[in-house]
């Protein structure tokens, strides 16, 4: 029997094999380089994967940067562009590639560029002519890279990326590109100029969200507006914003966004600042907010909004809501009663992960109102994760013997009674499929034992209690793994 060869496989299967190899290990780039030097078929797919994702950091080679700019065939392969660390752009580190450019752009080859790209290249050369430092030339080269890679679908950056020289070049370059093709580089609804017109995913790192921008040629350039308004952009992730959305109205960034998914990590925004973003997202389907445990929230600017009034009206199609405030609901909610009371109006909401103190103000109200918890939940809710880890955090070391702890336990008993004893208590009006509750200072094992005996034969709801130590992983986990994941070994519950 002759030896089998990978070349007898269909091209689609060969492409999948190369794609899987590109996702394994830290040596993926070296592996793809070796594969690109084999036969023509494998070399084609290896080259696609090699240039699909580009990370601009201190370790990027100047030759690679030049090749991507000068060769459209390679540049059009880039689908993910990540700017990892702004110090490399400013030359703050001695080993920064941008601070060690061998020569200015006058020696670069633009023979393979089309007429429009050559004009951008000529603009970059003209701006580099008056620059003495290689750092400035590096910033202009980086701006040229951003303008030419117009097929990028995912863009990620952190730090102060849009420095002075980068911004100046982008303003001039974006005006030129808008004159060439208004349908591609200008949003039709708000006339904003667009950067990365094919971008679908945007991630803004720590210290990068700047709504004000710089004043360039007597006009303010706001890079965030150029990044947020592509009609293809559906996913936005922001890390560690200091309530920057509060100035969204005063920044004169108008128009609707095409976002379907928003995630704010370690945020310090309040509900009023968040509402100024939500008002521009009528088609939002998923919203995830993870609050920062420490730090003061910046004061609001302009009109103050309440999330209970804005969320049902501005985002009626919302299907998934994750609200992790970590005991800081008083800092987040700017209006009384400092609770999320609009859930009953969210008819499309089916996936809810929320802190207990976002639904009940204190232990006394929880003890009284827990039996009727369905009156504060969405009518068509299918999956519920309720975290009570921070509910008694204000008690500190007094929680073991404090009266609020006993009220909390009684409230939890009333909460699960309609599910575990349907004959004694009325069946809830909305049949939730999965309920996972993270408890602290409670009888977790006793409640779980009762639920296992009564619940499944009642009306099909799956009820699971987990320890507060397992709660952090549940906020971002999949529901299938949340239901079947075994809890960690722990001491007997109180």
From TrEMBL:
Q: Which InterPro entries match?
A: LRR_dom_sf
Name of this chain's protein: F-box domain-containing protein
């Amino acid at each position: 029997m002759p030896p089998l060869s990978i070349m007898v496989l269909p091209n689609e299967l060969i492409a999948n094999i190369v794609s899987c190899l590109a996702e394994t290990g830290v040596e993926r780039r070296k592996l793809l380089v070796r594969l690109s030097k084999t036969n023509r078929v494998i070399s084609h797919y290896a080259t696609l994967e090699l240039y699909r994702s580009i990370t601009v950091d201190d370790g990027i080679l100047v030759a690679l940067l030049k090749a991507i700019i000068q060769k459209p065939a390679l540049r059009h392969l880039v689908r993910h562009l990540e700017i990892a660390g702004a110090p490399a752009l400013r030359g703050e580190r001695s080993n920064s590639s941008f601070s060690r450019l061998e020569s200015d752009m006058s020696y670069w080859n633009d023979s393979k560029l089309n007429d429009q790209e050559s004009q951008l290249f000529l603009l970059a050369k003209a701006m580099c002519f008056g620059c003495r430092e290689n750092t400035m030339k590096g910033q202009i080269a980086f701006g040229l890279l951003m303008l030419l890679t117009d097929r990028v679908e995912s863009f990620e950056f952190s730090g102060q990326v849009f420095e002075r020289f980068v911004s100046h070049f982008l303003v001039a370059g974006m005006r030129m590109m808008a004159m060439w093709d208004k349908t591609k580089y200008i949003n039709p609804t708000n006339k904003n100029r667009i950067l990365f017109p094919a971008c679908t995913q945007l991630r803004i790192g720590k210290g990068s969200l700047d709504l004000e921008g710089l004043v360039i040629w007597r006009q303010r350039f706001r890079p965030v507006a150029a990044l947020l308004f592509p009609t293809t952009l559906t996913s936005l992730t922001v890390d560690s914003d200091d309530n920057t959305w509060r100035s969204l109205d005063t920044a004169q960034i108008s128009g609707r966004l095409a976002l379907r998914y928003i995630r704010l990590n370690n945020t310090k925004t309040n509900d009023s600042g968040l509402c100024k973003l939500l008002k521009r997202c009528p088609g939002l389907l998923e919203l995830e907010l993870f609050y920062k445990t420490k730090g003061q929230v910046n004061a609001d600017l302009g009109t103050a909004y309440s999330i209970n009034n804005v969320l049902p009206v501005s985002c009626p199609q919302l299907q998934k809501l994750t609200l992790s405030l970590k005991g800081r609901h008083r800092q987040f909610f700017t209006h009384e009663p400092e609770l999320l009371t609009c859930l009953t109006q969210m008819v499309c909401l089916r996936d809810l992960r929320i802190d207990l103190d976002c639904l009940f103000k204190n232990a006394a109200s929880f003890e009284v109102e827990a039996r009727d918890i369905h009156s504060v939940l969405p009518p068509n809710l299918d999956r519920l994760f309720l975290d009570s880890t921070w509910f008694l955090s204000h008690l500190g070391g007094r929680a073991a013997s404090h009266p609020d702890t006993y009220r909390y336990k009684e409230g939890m008993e009333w909460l699960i009674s309609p599910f575990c004893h349907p004959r004694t208590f009325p069946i809830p009006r909305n049949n939730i499929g999965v309920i996972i509750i993270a408890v602290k200072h409670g009888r977790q094992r006793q409640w779980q034992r009762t639920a296992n005996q009564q619940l499944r034969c009642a009306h099909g709801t799956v009820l699971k209690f987990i320890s507060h130590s397992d709660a952090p992983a549940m906020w971002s986990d999949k529901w299938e793994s949340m239901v079947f994941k075994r809890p960690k070994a722990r001491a007997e519950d109180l």
